[in-house]
Every structure is written in structure tokens, then in C-alpha cells.
Amino acid sequence: MKKYDTIFLDRDGTLNPDPGYINDLSQFDFYEFAFEGLQLLSDNGHRFCIITNQSGISRGIVDVDKLSEIHDYILNSFHKNKLDLLGIYYCPDHPDKASNNRKPGSGMFLEASQDHNIETSKCLMIGDALSDIQAGVNLGMDTMLLLSGKGLQTSEKLGTLRPTFIAEDLLDGAKLLLEQPSS
Ligand SMILES: [Mg+2]
After folding, report:
1. How far is the CA of 149 from the centre of ligand 1 (A)?
2. Of residues 10, 128, 132, 169, which has the active-site annotation?
3. In the prediction, which pLDDT does 2 show?
4. Is residue 183 predicted with pLDDT exceeding 70?
5. 181 CA from centroid of ligand 1 (Å)
6. Is 125 contained in some domain?
């Protein structure tokens, strides 16, 4: 398996079903296969970092305290499963007034890289949206498009973007990575 410095993960549609603007912990559920996939990657020495756009904050749909509760739950769940999660970075920006922090911008990735000494060009970005793939490509990362979440729609509007990998979901993607020759 190819070894990455860090595997960046999108949140909604990647780790959990995406009903749109999750604003309460009761609406949040990991995909049942998520931890099996993460475990495979972790067993091969990978650490993780979650990078998520949460425009629901600036839209007034998602409350910051509720978001913190959800992210505490995610952090605890990774910890319980002995997975090395460096952090969860989120961007509250509205798409109409987005800073460089909102994916496909590089802001959150660069902040995480500074915080944790990450070499971004040696990383993998996994997500279900065009902005995930574009962000990874912009930073010279390998990219993986998942067809979970809105990935199927994304796969139809890739244009000239070519994700390094395309997989059904996070577990399928982890298995696909295991098959790759190390380099
Ligand atoms: Mg997503």
C-alpha cells in the first residue's frame, strides 16, 4: 500500500450520510462501514484529518455549539477506535462570500499542515464533492472520489478533473488503496 503523510477526509457524504445541514447530534450517524474502512487505513500506519465546509453556520441553519457537540462526538469516536485523528477543521463561510478556507480553497489544509507538520504533497484527499477533489489537486495531493453522498452526481460533472481513485464508499476505497503498490 502506498503510504501517505496524512489522509484528509471530508465529513458529510464521506464519513456519514448527508441529509443536508446537520444541526443536531441526533441527526448525525457514521456510515456503518466507516470505521472498518478507517481501521484498514490506520492498520497501515495512516493518520487522519477532517476538513469540512459548514456553510450552515453562516446561513444561520447550524448552531456553532451544536456543531461542536457533533465534532466532539466524532473526535471521541475516532479516539475510542484508536484512530489517529489530528483534528477537525471546518469553514463556516457562505459560498457567496467564501474565503480561501472554504474548499476548494487551501486555507484549512494549510492551517492543519502548520499545526501538525504535514507535507501536503504527500497526502491523500478523500471526499464526495467536486470541491474536495479540486482542493486536493490544487495542493498536489492524490485524490479519491467516493460515490457515496453526492459522489455519483459529482462523477458526472468532473470535466477535466481526474481523481486518482474512484471508489464506491470509504470501505471500498480503503480496500482499493491496500491493493496499490507502495512507493
Ligand atoms: Mg461531502
Report:
1. 7
2. 10
3. 86
4. no
5. 28
6. yes
Q: Catalytic annotation on 12?
A: yes
* Protein residues with C-beta less than 5 angstroms from the ion ligand 1: 10, 12-13, 128-129
Q: Let me know if residue 1 belongs to a domain.
A: no
For residue 58, pLDDT beyond 90: yes
Global pTM? 0.97
Q: Which of 5, 12, 128, 132 is catalytic?
A: 12
Name the pLDDT band for 1 (thresholds 50, 70, 90): confident
**Which residues span the domain enclosing 52?**
7-178
Split into its structural domains, the chain has a count of 1
Apex 152 CA angle, 85 and 134, nearest 5: 55
Q: Does the residue 172 lie in any domain?
A: yes
Per-residue pLDDT at 85: 98
- Concerning whether 5 is annotated as a catalytic residue, the answer is no
Q: Which CATH number covers residue 15? A: 3.40.50.1000
Q: How far, in Å, from the CA of 116 to the mean position of ligand 1?
A: 23
pLDDT tens, residue by residue, 97-116: 999 999 999 999 999 999 99
